[in-house]
Amino acid sequence: YAPETASAVPVVDEELEFGKSGGQGRSSLVMVPASSAAQSVQSADGPVVRAVSAVPLNSAPIQLATATEAPSSNMVIANANKVKQFHPACQAAAQAEVRLSMSTIFHTFYRNIETPSRVWDASGTCKVQLLRSIGKWSTGTKTECSILNCYLETIASSKHLIYIENQFFIGNTAGEGVSNTIPSALVNRILQAHRNKEAFRVVIIIPIHPNGDIAGAQRSKIVMHYEYQTINRGLSSMFAQLRKQAPDISIANYIGFHSLRSWGVINNKVVSDQIYVHDKLMIVDDRVVILGSANINDRSMLGHRDSELAIRIEDTLHVPTTMAGQQFMVGYLPHTVRMQLMRQHLGEDEALDLSDPLNPATRDFWTNRSNANSAIYDQVDGGISAYRCTTVAQYRDAFANYVNLSYLDPEVKHTMAEIKGFLV
Asked: Residues 251-305: pLDDT tens digits?
């Protein structure tokens, strides 16, 4: 829109075809005074929003101001009346062009995105699908396990990265009657990447141990048993299958399990405990987010047991980045959420570039920070941390005579200051 004080009003006139039967119209792009519409929006290169109008061929043309006169009020009213006769296709084109211009302004100046890939408007940019685990007992309907199906399909179609945070991690690789096949889907995708020499990584964050007293509570012992059987101890565990089907594989290059831990000072004594991971989140390729109430276990995934709700989010606002050093388009929301979570766990701010999680420097930074924090907690715990115990008896012995270190000790204070973030 041209400012009201403009002495020259540029006009562009173009012929556009819109169908055959009564659908032809002439589209005129007209610069009009700001008072007759929205305020002007300027960029360094001039106006970036244009007033678009169109008139049916059998009607009188819109009155245009000359280069030496500003439009009169009568002219504006006359032109406004003509707007009512505009062909719907012309109106739709005009609205789309204005939204696209506003989208460019919004993303360029507020999100630092130079090339928006879709129109931004009040409806947002994310496509969301509702997922459920329900059955006859919970809803009176047939069993539905769309959360599990979505997990499996998304894992199978992944290209480079699977990032998971969950309260539990129990699946069919544990054997012993466990049914959900999420761990097997991860194994199959890793083996595919290994065979094809693809850059691929799975990052999984779960609690160090189930909530409660794992030395005494029977339920906690059972959960720990099945998690170990799923991941690395059972004859059919994930690690056992990877080694059996790809003897030359380096498992650490493809998958890593982590937890979160924090510390503080009470009465001048160092105290520490895990941060209990309770979210149920999967981000794949920075393109898709699955978020909801479902744990990775049979209770949540099979549908005929616990009822659960989740959503699958795919952001149609695409931004360019890299995966393993190669150009790759990602969704704005999944990409942002994944980087924010990783920075939080690492204890870093936005100065740390985590846009490419498969970059060797990024992978090393993540792994080294986890190992360094773990080593310090080993020292604080007297040589063995909770997450390194392999039996309940070992855990009980390690903490039977636990002594909280004095924070008044300069060496202890210096040691604790070396812990960065929460990742272990």
From this structure: 999 999 999 999 999 999 999 999 999 999 999 999 999 999 999 999 999 999 9
Residue keyed to tokens 């999680």: 357
User: Cα 30 to chain center, whole Å?
Assistant: 42
Candidates 185, 154, 190; CA nearest to 171 is 185
What CA–CA distance (Å, rounded) separates 63 from 27? 14
Which structure tokens are listed for 415? 């040691």
Q: Which ranges constitute the DSSP H helices of 157-282?
A: 182-196, 218-231, 238-245
**Count of C-beta atoms within a 10 Å radius of residue 153:** 13
DSSP 8-state code for residue 254:
T
> What does the pLDDT look like over 157-174, one tens digit per residue?
999 999 999 999 999 999
Edge-to-edge strand list for the sheet holding 281-284: 144-145, 126-134, 308-315, 288-292, 281-284, 161-165, 201-205, 255-258
pLDDT (0 to 100) of residue 73: 52
Phi then psi for 185, rounded to 5 degrees? -60, -40
- φ/ψ of 327, rounded to 5, equals -60, 135
Distance of alpha carbon 92 from alpha carbon 99, whole angstroms: 11
* Predicted structure pTM score: 0.73
The helix (H) or strand (E) run that includes residue 308 is strand 308-315
